[in-house]
Write a structure and sequence with these properties.
The chain is mainly alpha-helical and 222 residues long. The chain has helices at residues 2-14, 20-27, 30-42, 48-64, 75-98, 104-124, 136-163, 166-171, 175-187, 194-211, 216-221. The chain has eleven helices and no strands.
Length: 222
């Protein structure tokens, strides 16, 4: 429900109400929420440098996403983006809490089958299967996204979540905009502006802050 139905569903609907850049920036509030929830419910340490890193990473994503601010901005879109971030964060913390008792492969398999069936049935009620153009390019993209991006992506994410602090693992999702920008520059010849570079630097510094082990004084103060 959290990691498939709400996470993907709210994004799909929300992008109709909000520019993609702003929507992405709001969704990447997830690492910040994971840090807070992990501290509240999992007993993970929280210290000043980690807080600064989470805020810095979110700010960096926001700066990178400023290029997508053109267009209509609505309250519905903002709420849907926040809902997507919240569902992703809650799903991540729940997985971490139960990671020792559930095999990641089984977890990913059941999650995608259950969530996928629910969304397929729901989608079939509002759209026609005949509207889909089953061209080779579409089928290859569908298979690639389904296998490598979603299935293997979730499996790797759950493996990491189960082996380390959820807040630290979640901080690495700030790298997604970096990969997207570098890929766009390499294959699509998109420009690397000073604004983008500033956002990239902030994200890299934020990951370092979140994953840096605090000193003894900071540990005693928690």
């Amino acid at each position: 429900m959290f990691n498939v139905v709400l996470y993907y569903g709210l994004q799909t609907i929300g992008l109709n109400f909000l520019p993609s850049g702003l929507f992405s920036a709001i969704v990447f509030l997830q690492p910040v929420l994971v840090g807070i929830f992990s501290w509240m419910w999992l007993g993970e340490p929280m210290f000043g440098l980690k807080i600064a890193g989470l805020i810095l990473g979110f700010t960096g994503v926001g700066i990178i996403s400023t290029g997508g601010l053109a267009g209509h901005i609505s309250l519905e879109g903002i709420l849907l983006a926040l809902g997507s971030a919240l569902s992703w964060a809650l799903g991540t913390v729940y997985v971490k809490k139960n990671s020792a008792s559930v095999d990641p492969i089984w977890l990913v398999t059941f999650q995608l089958i259950a969530g996928g069936l629910f969304m397929t049935i729901l989608g079939s009620g509002v759209e026609s299967w005949s509207a889909i153009a089953w061209k080779p390019v579409f089928i290859l993209c569908l298979l690639f996204i389904s296998l490598f991006v979603i299935a293997l992506g979730w499996l790797a994410f759950y493996k990491l979540i189960g082996s380390g602090e959820a807040s630290r693992v979640a901080s690495y999702t700030f790298l997604i905009p970096i990969v997207a920008i570098l890929t766009g520059a390499l294959f699509l010849h998109e420009p690397l502006t000073l604004t983008l570079l500033a956002g990239l630097v902030m994200i890299l510094v934020s990951i370092y802050f979140v994953n840096r082990t605090p000193g003894r004084a900071a540990l005693k103060s928690k």
